[in-house]
C-alpha cells in the first residue's frame, strides 16, 4: 500500500480513537472480496451491462414477474455461498471494542449481520420474502425452492405473488432507512466503505455526519467533503487498521 497509505491508516486509527461516536456506511465494494460482484465500478459493474430499471425494478416485477425472477434470483443465490471477509469482521470487532456504534449498509447480502455487526440494512435483505396478497412472510428459501422446482413466479399458499424483502428500484425506503437517519444525525465520524455514493437517498446520508472518511476504489461525489480518503484495497485497509489498533480479528 506504500508509505503514504500507511500514514493514512495511522490517521484513520487516530480519528476512530478520538471520535466520541463512529458509524460505518457500506456499499457493494466491501463485499467484492467475498465473491459478490459490485454494481457501478467502471468496466465490471453489473449496471454497466444492463439497465436496472429494466430488470430489477418494481415496474419490471409487475410487468413480468417470471422474467424478474429468472434474471435476479440467479445472482442473488450467489450471496448464499458468500462468507464475510476480513473487512466485515474488523468492523464487527471495532463494534465489540466500543470503537464503532454499528453499520448502515446498502447491501442485501447479509454479510454484516453474519459477521456480528449491529446493522441497518437500508436496502433490505434476502433472508425473507413476503406475499403481495395476504401479507404473509416466509423464509427466502421457501421462494427459492419453488423456483428450483419449476414454479415461476413463486407464489404464497394463498395464490398471490411473493416478492423479496429488498428495496427494488422504484420502491420507497422503509423503517431501516429512517432509523439510520436518526442514528446518524450529528454523528462525529462516518466511515464510508465501498460505496460510490451515487444512489439516493442513501447518497445524501454523509451530510448528517460532522466528519467523513471515504474508503473506496473510485472517486465519489463526496470526496471534496472528506477529512480523509483511502484508495487502497478495502480488505488490506482494514487488516492494516486492525494491526494499527492492536487487534487482528
From TrEMBL:
Domain of life: Bacteria
Active site: 123 (proton acceptor)
Protein name: protein acetyllysine N-acetyltransferase
SUPFAM superfamilies, sorted: DHS-like NAD/FAD-binding domain (SSF52467)
UniProt enzyme class: transferase
Species lineage: Bacteria, Bacillati, Bacillota, Clostridia, Thermoanaerobacterales
Listed InterPro entries: DHS-like_NAD/FAD-binding_dom, NAD-dep_sirtuin_deacylases, Sirtuin, Sirtuin_cat_small_dom_sf, Ssirtuin_cat_dom
PANTHER family: NAD-DEPENDENT PROTEIN DEACYLASE SIRTUIN-5, MITOCHONDRIAL-RELATED (PTHR11085:SF10)
Keywords for this protein: Metal-binding, NAD, Transferase, Zinc
Residue sites binding Zn(2+) per the record: 131, 134, 156, 158
Natural source organism: Desulforudis audaxviator (strain MP104C)
Short name of any one Pfam family annotated for the protein: SIR2
Amino acid at each position: 500500500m506504500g508509505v503514504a497509505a500507511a500514514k493514512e491508516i495511522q490517521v484513520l486509527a487516530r480519528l476512530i480513537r478520538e471520535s466520541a461516536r463512529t458509524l460505518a456506511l457500506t456499499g457493494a465494494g466491501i463485499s467484492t472480496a467475498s465473491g459478490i460482484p459490485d454494481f457501478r465500478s467502471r468496466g465490471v459493474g453489473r449496471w454497466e451491462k444492463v439497465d436496472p430499471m429494466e430488470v430489477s425494478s418494481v415496474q419490471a416485477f409487475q410487468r413480468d414477474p417470471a422474467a424478474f425472477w429468472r434474471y435476479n434470483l440467479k445472482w442473488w443465490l450467489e450471496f448464499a455461498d458468500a462468507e464475510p471477509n476480513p473487512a466485515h469482521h474488523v468492523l464487527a470487532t471495532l463494534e465489540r471494542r466500543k470503537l464503532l456504534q454499528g453499520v448502515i449498509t446498502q447491501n442485501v447480502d447479509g454479510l454484516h449481520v453474519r459477521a456480528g455487526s449491529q446493522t441497518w440494512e437500508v436496502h433490505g435483505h434476502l433472508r425473507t420474502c413476503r406475499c403481495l396478497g395476504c401479507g404473509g412472510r416466509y423464509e427466502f428459501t421457501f421462494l427459492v425452492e419453488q423456483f428450483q422446482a419449476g414454479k415461476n413466479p413463486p407464489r404464497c399458499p394463498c395464490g398471490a405473488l411473493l416478492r423479496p424483502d429488498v428495496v427494488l428500484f422504484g420502491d420507497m425506503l422503509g423503517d431501516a432507512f429512517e432509523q439510520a437517519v436518526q442514528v446518524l444525525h450529528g454523528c462525529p465520524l462516518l466511515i464510508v466503505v465501498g460505496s460510490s455514493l451515487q444512489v439516493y437517498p442513501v447518497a445524501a446520508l454523509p451530510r448528517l455526519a460532522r466528519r467523513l472518511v471515504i474508503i473506496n476504489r473510485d472517486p465519489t461525489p463526496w470526496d471534496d467533503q472528506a477529512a480523509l480518503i483511502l484508495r487502497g484495497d478495502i480488505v488490506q485497509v482494514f487488516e492494516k487498521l486492525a494491526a494499527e489498533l492492536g487487534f487482528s480479528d
